[in-house]
Amino acid sequence: MPSFYFDYHFVESGGARIEDTDDTGVELADHTIAQREAAAALVEFARDVFPSLTYSEVGIQVRDRTGCLYRFRIVFEVADTTGSGLR
Questions:
Q1: Tens-place pLDDT, residues 45-85
Q2: In this structure, are residues 34 and 4 in contact, taking their beta carbons and an 8 Å threshold?
Q3: Helices and strands: H and E segment counts in the chain
Q4: Which residues lie below 8 Å from residue 64, measured CB to CB, with a gap of 6+?
Q5: What's the mean pLDDT in 23-51?
Q6: CA 2: distance to chain centroid?
Q7: What DSSP state is assigned to residue 66?
Q8: Torsions phi, psi of 40, nearest 5?
Q9: Which is nearest to 15 in space by CA: 70, 60, 54?
Q10: Strand partners, 55
Q11: In the predicted model, is pLDDT for residue 86 greater than 60?
C-alpha cells in the first residue's frame, strides 16, 4: 500500500502562518481514500479551532513520496456589516 503524508497549516487571525509537517505518514489503499481522510480531518479540525477566532485559515496538503498531490483549505472570515466593529 502507498504511504501518504498529511501536512497541516494554520493562519492565525493576525496573519502568522504555522506549519506542521507529517514525517511519519500513513499507509492507505489509494488516492481516493487519502482525499477522503484529508477532507474529514480538515472539517474536524476546523470545527475545533474556528469558534475561538484564533485562526482564519486551516489547510492540509497530502503528499506521497513524489511530492504534493492535493491541497485542502478552509478560510474563515468575519465581516462586520453593522459598522459597530467586531466584539
A1: 888 877 776 778 899 999 999 999 999 999 887 777 887 76
A2: yes
A3: 1, 5
A4: 2, 3, 4, 5
A5: 92
A6: 22
A7: T
A8: -65, -40
A9: 54
A10: 12
A11: no
pLDDT of residue 14: 83
Closest CA to 37 of 1, 74, 75, 72: 72
Q: What is the mean pLDDT of the chain?
A: 89
**Which grid coordinates belong to 76?**
474563515
| Cα 77 from chain centroid (whole Å) | 15
For residues 19 and 64, what is the distance between their CA atoms, to the nearest angstrom?
18
For residue 73, which amino acid is it? R
pLDDT at 87 exceeding the cut of 60: no
Q: How many angstroms separate the CA atoms of 27 and 19, rounded?
A: 22
Q: 35, exposed or middle or buried, with CB in 10 Å at 0-12, 13-18, 19+?
A: middle
Do residues 62 and 68 touch, judged by C-beta distance below 8 A? yes
- The residue type of 77 is E
Tallying the residues shown for the chain, one arrives at: 87
